Structure formats: C-alpha cells, structure tokens
C-alpha cells in the first residue's frame, strides 16, 4: 500500500508539479515550499552578526532601537521579489511561517533578540485585512515565535487609518503618509516588555518607525525590529 501511494504521489507530481515560488524549479521529494538551491543560496544579509547594519542605521536618531535585522536582501526582479509576490498576493501564507523559522534560528543565537518578550507584527487596516485574508507580517511573526520562545501579540498595536500604497512615494512622502496612523490599545499590557516589531519588507523604514514611535510611548518598553527583507 505504501509503495502504491508513493507511485501515485510521483504520478501526481508529474502532472501537477509543485514549484519553488522563488525560482519556479520543480520541488523534489524532501523539499518543502522552497527548493534546496534557493534555501541555501538566497541573498542572506547575516545582519544578526552586524549590530550596526544598514537596517539599524535607518532608525539612528529617530527612534531608540535595541537591534534591527532583515533576513534577506530584496532586489527588484530577483528571487526574493518572486517569493514575496507569492506570499502576499498568491495566498501562500506558509512561506511567511517558514521564513520566520529560518530567521528565528539566526536570531536565537543573538543575545538581544533572544530576550524578546512579545512579537508584534506591523498591523494592516481592518479593511485591507478583509481583502487579503491574512497579515503577512503575522505569518512571519508566528515562525519567529517558534524559535525565540516568545508570544505573538496581534491586538495591542492597531492601524487606525487606511493609507494608500507607499510604493511610488518619496522618502519624505512615506514618512508623512505614516503620521498618526497607528495606536496602542492597551499600553499597560506592554509596560516593561522587550518587543520585537516585525514587517515584511523594509525600504525607508517609515512604517516601522511610525509603529515603533507609538510602542516606545509605553513606559519601560524596549524595541527591536526584524523584517523578512531589506530593499536595496
């Protein structure tokens, strides 16, 4: 029976092959979501080993951040863009969880990130959340939580304004677009916590900065930042 199931699975794979969302190569037995070549050769940043990395520099002089990190470099037209497209717009939520576990394994070896109490994803507006069906940053957060032994808090930070896309905006316009957009619902629940704020892609950092500024109004909060990718 096991042999028959294996034959049927192989036959189904020939007719409907699972493709790696990063490179479109067919997945082979033992590969999960991302092919082995991409798993090892995507553009890792290794920012967990570089305290003064370029993501951290985005926030110098703006908000007080303990540490900042992105798992990959994002290049337009590259494999990470392909991966993120499938994650955000093709319903492949499992990509976020997988990338979260990969990032979490790196961050667990870092003294600052490993002291995280709560992981808070950058929130979507409730209207956008209904349209998409899920928050990609939340998927990433749950993967991180598996490795960092921390809790995911999806409710304390909320987006109160449905802003337009940031894609074509200048750095200053992005910053202005994020003013007074986020709020903390129950500050007392966050007092004294080390919060890891997570987003999918950091470009100018204006969205994360706006979220972080609200969280840092809570007494005793320490803030770190993690993202799937940094756009270069």
- Low-pLDDT stretches: 11-15
Largest sheet: 5 strands, parallel
Which CATH-level-2 architecture of the largest domain? 3-Layer(aba) Sandwich
Principal-axis shape equals: globular
**What does the average pLDDT come to?**
90
User: Strand-residue fraction?
Assistant: 15-25%
Oligomer: single chain
Task: Please provide a written account of the structure.
By secondary structure, this protein is α/β, with parallel strands linked by helices. It folds into two domains: 41 residues, no CATH class; 189 residues, 3-Layer(aba) Sandwich (Rossmann fold). Helices cover 38% and strands 16% of the residues. It has nine helices and seven strands; from the N terminus they run H-H-H-E-H-H-E-H-H-E-E-H-E-E-H-E. The strands form two sheets. It has a five-stranded parallel sheet with strand order 1-7-6-2-3, sandwiched between helices. The chain has a two-stranded antiparallel ribbon with strand order 4-5. Helix 4 packs across helix 5 and helix 5 packs parallel to helix 7. The longest helix is centred in the middle third of the chain and has 15 residues. The protein starts with a helix and ends with a strand. About 2% of the residues have low confidence.
Per-chain topology:
Elements: H1 2-15, H2 36-41, H3 54-57, E1 68-74, H4 79-89, H5 93-107, E2 118-121, H6 126-132, H7 136-148, E3 151-152, E4 157-159, H8 171-177, E5 182-184, E6 194-202, H9 206-215, E7 222-231
Parallel strand pairs: 1-7, 2-3, 2-6, 6-7
Antiparallel strand pairs: 4-5
Organism: Mucilaginibacter rubeus
Protein name: ComF family protein
Domain Phosphoribosyltransferase: 173-223
């Amino acid at each position: 029976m096991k042999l028959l199931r294996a034959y049927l699975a192989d036959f189904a794979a020939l007719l409907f092959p699972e493709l790696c969302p990063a490179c479109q190569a067919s997945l082979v037995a033992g590969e999960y979501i991302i092919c082995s070549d991409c798993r090892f050769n995507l553009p890792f940043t290794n920012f967990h080993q570089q305290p003064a990395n370029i993501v951290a520099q985005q926030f110098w002089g703006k908000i007080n951040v303990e540490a900042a990190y992105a798992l990959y470099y994002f290049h337009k037209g590259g494999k990470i863009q392909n991966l993120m497209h499938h994650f955000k717009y093709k319903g492949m939520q499992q990509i976020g969880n997988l990338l979260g576990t990969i990032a979490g394994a790196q961050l667990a070896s870092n003294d600052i990130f490993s002291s995280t109490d709560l992981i808070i994803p950058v929130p979507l507006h409730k209207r956008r959340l209904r349209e998409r069906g899920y928050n990609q940053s939340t998927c990433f957060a749950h993967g991180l939580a598996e490795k960092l032994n921390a809790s995911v808090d999806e409710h304390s930070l909320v987006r109160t304004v449905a802003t337009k896309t940031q894609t074509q905006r200048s750095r200053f316009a992005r910053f202005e677009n994020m003013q007074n957009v986020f709020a903390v619902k129950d500050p007392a629940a966050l007092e004294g916590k080390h919060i890891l704020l997570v987003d999918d892609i950091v470009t100018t950092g204006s969205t994360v900065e706006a979220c972080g500024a609200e969280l840092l109004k809570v007494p005793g909060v320490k803030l770190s930042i993690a993202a799937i990718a940094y756009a270069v």
